[in-house]
Amino acid sequence: MKLNLLTREDLGNPETYVTVSPSQMAMWYRCRYAWKLSKIDGVGQENYRESGAANKGLIFHAFMDWLHKHCIGRPISRLSPSGQMKALEHVQLTYGADADFYKVFTIFLAYVDWAAENEEGVPIASEIEAFANTGLVTRDGRKIFLHGFIDLLMDVFGKLILIDHKSHTNQPWTKSRLFYDHQFMFYWLLLELQGVQVDGAYVNAVNLFIPADEKKFDMRLVGIGSKNIRPRFERIPLGPHEVNLQFYLDEFLRNIKQMWCDEAVYPMRLSSDCQYCTFRDHIELDATGNESASIATLKVRHNTKDFELIDDTDELEAS
Length: 319
Ligand code: SF4
Hints:
By secondary structure, the chain is an alpha+beta fold.
């Protein structure tokens, strides 16, 4: 199955286009002013490491990427002891010092066994960087592309299936929850907008809950001893007839037009949860009534070694 997807090289000179990723959309939905500070004014954001459940999700994701890159073109099978060591050593380079690393590794090994029993498809590509032309142009004449990293594409009996890995620790993924997950719909659209017909999608969800009491830790089940015992690994299949992609596309384009094309209007959120926003110190500066001086000050404060201009990727987005 050959896919001819747009690559960054195909887009040409980086000064002639802008890209919009799911993490950028998420920032826009949280606060339009934060998006403007980051994308228009170039104020750096805090470069923080995820913690807790989101961090476990990143570790699991890294194992999954290793697995699928090693199974391109062949069915997933159980790992030999040397395969297990290779996966461990690979992900250890980034996450070896994490307290939950070995438990997530244990869950990963259980996942591989689960996939070897249940997975009918053959991986085609993993962590695929993809772009799609929106047909929109910014106020200053640059083309606008959607941009993201798709977890996995599989060939399942000749059908192209989009796979999204999802992790959680206490809120199981369900079909109805996916309708609120713009990231998932975004990936599907990234392919369809390039003329790639997606025959369906699987959301492979893993519960990464690890109980404090080691005796209660089970690789394949969670909720031991309670009434809510569930499998750790669950698959949610979705057919094209179950998702109204046109609805999501229309909404994305409407928001992207407001970001980049229409009159520049970026209201502040100004709520009590602003205290968690990387840019929170702009409020006291802006309240003095001098926005341009405020932005200049923010740039000096933020564009240092502790902060960085976040690249337009969603690579580190917790799933
Ligand atoms: S501090 Fe509040 S208003 Fe300012 S960018 Fe952050 S969320 Fe938006």
